[in-house]
Amino acid sequence: MLFMCELQKKSKISSSRRLGLKIRLLAVATQMLQEEKEQKVREREAVLAERLPPLNLSGLSLQELQDLCKELHHKIDVVDEERYDVGLKVSKNDTEIENMKIKITEIQSKFKKPHLKRVKISAEAMLSVLLGSKHKESFDFKANLKTVKKEEEKKEEVTDWRKNVEAMSGMEGRKKLFDASGN
């Protein structure tokens, strides 16, 4: 039934027209990406021009050049500290984002088990529930259980082995062994 509904809902746009629209969309998207890249390059150049004015080294004495180098080194140190601080903030935020994602997936995937109440029901009541009207006679399940009797282990009396050897030695001992095995 569902399959027939899908056949009836054919698109109103032909496949060639759809392909042409996709090609135009991709062309517009690539043009927008190219413009965005050029805009970023222009912004970067403007920021660099603002932060770093062009160096004019002509006509400077040795002392002025050394002062300029010290100033540039100081600016480099400040920028490195800022870059390091920003990098730490970004890494801290990334770890927090990962932890939050993990918590979200744990919360979404948790399945709360319902608290089940223990119900005491007899065997006959259970059968009547399961079998319904078919259950007419009562069963005594305990009577059908087999009883297991523990056999008492035969304990041999611990006697002095020397007496046992003396008793078994000679013909009397062999006769006793023969008689014992015959019984």
Account of the protein in words:
This protein has 183 residues and is an all-alpha fold. It has helices spanning 2-8, 15-51, 62-109, 123-131, 141-144, 161-168, 170-182. The protein is 69% helix and 0% strand. The two termini are 85 Å apart. The mean pLDDT is 78.
In short:
This protein is mostly helical and 183 residues long. It has helices at 2-8, 15-51, 62-109, 123-131, 141-144, 161-168, 170-182.
Topology:
Blueprint: H1 2-8, H2 15-51, H3 62-109, H4 123-131, H5 141-144, H6 161-168, H7 170-182
Weakly predicted, low-confidence segments: none
Give the H and E element order.
HHHHHHH
The end-to-end span amounts to 85 Å
Number of helices: 7
Mean pLDDT: 78
The largest β sheet comes out as: none
- Overall morphology: elongated
The helix content is 55-70%
Q: Give the amount of beta strand, in percent.
A: under 5%
Secondary structural class: mainly alpha
Number of strands: 0
